[in-house]
Design a protein that fits this description.
352 residues; mainly alpha
Length: 352
């Protein structure tokens, strides 16, 4: 018997057809079909990158940036701009897939971290990106993510943290922290093409103790918005996007608009430990690749160690603050319960 298709399930694929149509028309009008021949290595890379972007808290830039800078020897500024440009397409497609599939997300984090990220990425692109030499940018990226993987591994397999499906007891401090982590994550995105997704994911999982199954799609939506802001700023305001980045973008658009929704669909029925394992393995591989491919001197190794140590302090502090927050909230709830019981008892005694 013919089964009527679910509109919510086919909506992302309708988007794919629309994007392909617009892309085909635009690339023909611009005469950029040669970009496909020049950019096919990046198209293959983004098959994996877009899938990872939809399935984990690492954006497509987390794959594109190290591959471009370490393997293809492309300048970090070009890799960063391309990462933001391509994520604005792929992760927006994944966002539509997430929303249309009614996958649970944390909208408070999307609001407050998103606002901070808008400011942070402009700061990162305009000022911070010129401070670090190319080799240091490459190592900064892999070292910071290594500290994140270590923290995530510790709280899931060593300390056996408990998780919640929703955040309770929202306060002004929580919103301020999300705003601050959004600014910091946006600055990192301005340096290496992704960062808001990972840092907000970390805040949700370590501080708020939210399950990875909810924190992951939340981070995807956040990075989609951050990438769109970064793309608009670099191309529309600063006007500094290189022809090389545009060429790669033309070649990869039809790939990522499929890969990212597939990743979001794939991960929705997987366990949180499965998600964590994918993240940890991919991050360790990135760091090993950087250690092998980037020429290191003693100063660069010290820089890498400092970033790892700083990241561990940051993420460890989030976890300890999360324990304190959970304890205070439970104490407050217990106090309210005791007060309610006392009032009910006093009321009952008054009626006697």
């Amino acid at each position: 018997m013919f089964k009527k298709p679910n509109v919510k399930e086919i909506r992302p694929w309708m988007l794919v057809l629309c994007v392909w149509t617009v892309w085909g028309t635009a690339i023909t009008a611009a005469g950029k079909w040669s970009a496909l021949a020049d950019g096919w290595p990046m198209s293959i890379t983004m098959c994996l990158g877009s899938f990872v972007a939809g399935a984990t808290s690492e954006g497509g830039g987390a794959v594109a940036f190290p591959v471009m800078t370490l393997l293809f020897r492309i300048p970090p500024s070009v890799a960063r701009d391309f990462s933001l440009m391509i994520q604005s397409v792929g992760m927006t497609a994944a966002t539509i897939a997430i929303v249309s599939s009614n996958i649970r997300v944390n909208w408070q984090a999307i609001l407050w971290s998103g606002l901070g990220g808008m400011l942070g990425i402009v700061i990162g692109l305009q000022w911070f990106s010129v401070w670090l030499p190319p080799a240091y940018l490459k190592i900064f990226f892999t070292s910071l993510w290594l500290s994140f993987a270590a923290a995530l591994f510790a709280v899931n397999w060593l300390w056996k943290r408990s998780v919640v499906s929703s955040v309770r007891g929202w306060g002004a401090k929580d919103r301020a922290l999300l705003l601050a982590i959004g600014v910091l994550g946006g600055i990192v995105s301005g340096l290496v093409g992704s960062g808001l997704d990972i840092l907000t994911f970390t805040m949700l999982t370590l501080y708020f103790r939210v399950s990875e199954k909810i924190a992951t799609p939340t981070s995807v939506i956040l990075m989609a918005s951050n990438a769109c802001v970064g793309f608009f700023w670099q191309a529309g305001v600063a006007g500094v996007v290189s022809g090389e980045a545009w060429s790669f973008w033309w070649a990869c658009v039809p790939v990522v608009v499929v890969g990212a929704p597939l990743g979001a669909w794939f991960i929705r029925r997987r366990s949180r430990h499965f998600i964590t394992a994918i993240l940890c393995v991919s991050i360790v591989l990135q760091f090993v690749g950087a250690a092998l491919l980037v020429p290191h001197d003693r100063q660069l190794w010290w820089f890498s160690a400092s970033v790892v140590a700083g990241g561990m302090i940051l993420f460890g502090g989030m976890y300890m603050m999360g324990i304190r927050r959970a304890g205070l909230w439970k104490a407050a709830q217990q106090g309210q319960s005791n007060r309610a019981w006392t009032l009910a008892a006093s009321d009952a005694m008054g009626r006697r």
